[in-house]
Amino acid sequence: TLAQFHSRMGHESVIVSSDSDFIQLLNLTNLNISLYHPIKKKYIERPDYDYVMWKALRGDATDNIPGIPGVGDKTAHKLVVNPEKLNDFLLNETNRAIFERNVNLIRLVDFTADLSVLETFNGVKDFDMLKNIFTDLDFKTILKEKAWKKYVDTFARL
């Protein structure tokens, strides 16, 4: 919502996340929104198909949303780029019910009409406390000196 709001105000919005749910924002027209994947260290390209429809067909295991049985990445892509095939496929009541449920679960809600429903919080950086939590959770890799410094330096500008 905030990325959409700021983009509509004429600002560039860059979302930094490895969560693929944000890809759907790239399908929105006339918005200056980019998505940067911090693990892959690259910007994600705008898909040439409706990402929400594609994901609703194939499901989203990460968010525990089952897809339509027998539909994987390739079949979902073939359906979303061919509206006639998709309509024929969704004539099956079971397929349509799963698809509609998934669209409602996957599509991000736009609250730009009423930003008062959003709650924001500016936390306090306490890397010592965080390091203690990571230690308790036995996150060994990030606690190595070089990795920890790189992690902390990521937030130096904030």
Give a description of the structure.
- The chain is mainly alpha-helical and 158 residues long.
- The protein is built from 8 helices and 5 strands, in the order αβββαββαααααα.
- The strands form 2 sheets. Strands 1-2-3 form a 3-stranded mixed sheet. A two-stranded antiparallel ribbon has the order 4-5.
- α2 (51-58) packs across α3 (73-80) and α2 packs across α5.
What key attributes describe this structure?
single chain; 158 residues; two-stranded antiparallel ribbon; globular
Give a count of the beta strands, DSSP E runs of length 2 or more: 5
- Describe the main β-sheet briefly: 3 strands, mixed
* Rg from Cα: 20 Å
Counting H and I runs of at least 4 residues, what is the number of helices? 8
Unreliable stretches covering 5 or more consecutive residues? none
H-E order: HEEEHEEHHHHHH
Percent range for β-strand residues: 5-15%
Portion of residues within helices: 40-55%
What strand line-up does the widest sheet have?
Answer: 1-2-3
What is the fold's blueprint, element by element?
Elements: H1 2-8, E1 13-16, E2 33-37, E3 42-43, H2 51-58, E4 59-60, E5 65-66, H3 73-80, H4 83-89, H5 93-106, H6 127-136, H7 140-143, H8 145-154
Parallel strand pairs: 1-2
Antiparallel strand pairs: 2-3, 4-5
Helix pairs in contact: 2-3, 2-5
Summed up, what is this model?
By secondary structure, the protein is mainly α. It has eight helices and five strands; from the N terminus they run αβββαββαααααα.
